[in-house]
């Protein structure tokens, strides 16, 4: 089953806290997940200041700068993994290096049927 592990952290301090992960540590963990067959995809995200939020209301599109939610932690990256079940996905998530200074939201991916297939 596919799970999305969303990485949240305080963007301003993500790389400055004593227990902060280094980019090479995150890459090494992603590489180990790929070697084990668990990694389906993942990327770090650009800073939240580069985000825009798109809304469509009554057929009209509005685009605003920044993320939708004002929170202490920001979405900083994601890992798309393949795991047997939620417990295995949690074990994968607890080893994602930014978990030491932020949080990892683990969510099952709902498979969409394409053209009636599946």
TrEMBL record:
YCII-related domain ranges (all copies): 1-112
Domain of life: Bacteria
Positions in coiled-coil regions: none
Gene3D superfamilies (alphabetical): Dimeric alpha+beta barrel (3.30.70.1060)
One Pfam family named in its UniProt record: YCII
Protein family: Belongs to the YciI family.
Full protein name: YCII-related domain-containing protein
Organism, as annotated: Alloalcanivorax venustensis ISO4
Lineage: Bacteria, Pseudomonadati, Pseudomonadota, Gammaproteobacteria, Oceanospirillales
């Amino acid at each position: 089953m596919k799970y999305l592990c969303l990485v949240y952290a305080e963007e301003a301090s993500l790389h400055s806290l004593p227990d902060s992960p280094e980019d090479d540590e995150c890459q090494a963990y992603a590489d180990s997940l790929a070697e084990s067959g668990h990694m389906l995809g993942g990327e770090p995200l650009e800073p939240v200041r580069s985000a825009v939020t798109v809304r469509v209301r009554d057929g009209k599109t509005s685009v605003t700068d920044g993320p939708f939610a004002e929170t202490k932690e920001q979405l900083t990256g994601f890992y798309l993994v393949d795991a047997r079940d939620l417990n295995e996905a949690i074990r994968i998530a607890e080893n994602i290096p930014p978990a030491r200074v932020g949080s990892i939201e683990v969510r099952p991916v709902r498979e969409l049927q394409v053209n009636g297939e599946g």
